[in-house]
Write a structure and sequence with these properties.
The protein is mainly beta and about 425 residues long. The chain has four helices and 23 strands. The longest helix is centred in the first third of the chain and has 19 residues, at about 5-20. The protein is globular, with a radius of gyration of 24 Å.
Length: about 425
């Protein structure tokens, strides 16, 4: 039951939320709490951390649920839903033991809430519409306030019309740093949130009714080649925090190193529980922390479900592999001007024809494969990015240091033929 104090607080929250917005640059900061020595914040590729301010010892944040215009990569934009102008919403950072207060303003056309995924908190702050609270109506601002009793990699998302609102992009990362300094501290700390989208060719809004056959697979709501690379310097210890609020599990594979799986939404695990992997499945609703010592190179990090590293996936298409289509090309062009037969020998020609401008795809639709590397087309998309490591890394987050140059004698090379006496 809502008491008088809560009712008054709810009616005043809009004014306070407005003050939080208008006071930017005066009473707030970004990143994590000040006063904690040797503590650095998380880097969210293609994103940012949510600003906050301290008021009477409480860390205050303002989240605004609203429609946003979002670009997956140049060539595809949609009308999504998110927080504070983006999907995913800004990463929340705080410290174990902090008391936090969230003003949540709803600018959507329907009710919403926020569920703090994996957090230990009072029942009434859990954010489940109809169970722990009334839903936040359009135009209302509500307050969530609680103490952070744990550390780890967490997430936030609605628990009202959840299927639609999450399909539209409403989610974000919530990183709680430990109060005490970590053993084996990291030099760089990254956060990636995995999601999937049903954006049919030629359309501009996600289809929330799709359950399995998605078109786009994203890291921080971007697809390759628009996902910012993760930067590091040789010998640095790097942590990649991965959260999954998609509808699929994702076996995340990292090239170049054996990483340690060191934590989850349960926090950083005791050292004896760490394990070496090169691929780690991040299940739906789960988070995992992957740590490694950086080795020079441009190393891929991607989902190992191969159709999750492609864009604008088509479904229920005829299989043309091995099919000679030459006899029907002219008849097809009479129906579809400019028609080109493809797929007889594979899909590589698809990207090359698009790159050369021979064909155009549907409106507002990315090609299935893309990305140019130093030696040609990379033929990737979706949940794929690069960990770029240099002996000296001068580039800032969001910048690209260029392509890695392998030292002489350390790169594959062509030969005329294999030795005749080589067994096979």
């Amino acid at each position: 039951m809502i008491n008088r104090r809560q009712l008054l607080l709810g009616s005043a929250a809009g004014l306070v939320g407005q003050a939080l917005t208008s006071n930017r640059g005066i009473a707030q900061t970004t990143g994590i709490a000040s006063g904690i020595p040797s503590r650095q914040g998380v880097i969210t590729p293609n994103g940012r951390s949510l600003p906050w301010r301290i008021r009477d010892g409480v860390k205050e944040f303002h989240l605004i649920a609203e429609e946003v215009e979002h670009e997956f990569a140049p060539g595809t934009k949609i009308k999504a839903w998110g927080y504070n102008g983006s999907t995913p919403g800004p990463t929340i950072e705080a410290v174990e033991g902090d008391r936090v207060r969230f003003y949540v303003t709803n600018r959507l056309p329907e009710p919403t809430t926020i569920h703090w995924h994996g957090l230990i908190l009072p029942f009434g702050m859990d954010g489940v519409a109809g169970l722990t609270q009334r839903a936040i109506q359009p135009g209302e601002t509500w307050v969530y306030e609680f103490d952070l009793k744990q550390h780890g990699t967490h997430m936030y998302h609605p628990h009202a019309d959840e299927m639609l609102q999450m399909a539209m992009g409403m989610m974000g990362m919530f990183i709680i740093h430990p109060r005490e300094a970590e053993e084996n501290p990291v030099d760089r700390d990254y956060a990636l949130l995995l999601h999937n989208w049903a954006v049919h060719p030629g359309t501009y809004r996600p289809d929330p009714a799709v359950m399995t056959e998605f078109d786009l697979w994203t890291m921080n709501s971007k697809v390759f080649p628009a996902i910012d690379p993760l930067l590091a310097q040789t010998g640095e210890r790097v942590r990649v925090r991965i959260g999954n609020l998609s509808m699929w599990n994702h076996p995340m594979h990292m090239h170049g190193v054996q990483f340690d799986v060191t934590g989850s939404d349960g926090g950083r695990w005791p050292r004896q529980q760490w394990r070496k992997e090169v691929t780690e499945i991040v299940g739906v609703g789960q988070t995992r922390d992957l740590e490694f010592v950086a080795v020079a190179g441009d190393w891929p990090l991607h989902c190992h479900m191969s159709h999750h590293t492609m864009n604008a996936m088509g479904h229920d298409l005829p299989n043309t592999l091995g099919v000679n289509q030459r006899d029907i090309v002219q008849r097809m062009r009479a129906l579809v001007p400019g028609y080109m037969a493809m797929g007889e020998t594979g899909m590589s020609e698809h990207q090359s024809h698009i790159d050369m401008g021979h064909i155009n795809g549907p409106e507002n639709t990315l090609p299935m494969m893309g990305g140019q590397g130093p030696y040609g087309g990379m033929e990737m998309g979706g949940m794929f990015t690069l960990i770029k490591v240099r002996d000296r890394m001068d580039a800032a987050p969001g910048q690209d240091p260029g392509w890695y140059q392998p030292p002489e004698g350390t790169q594959a090379y062509p030969v005329t033929a294999a030795p005749e006496d080589l067994p096979s």
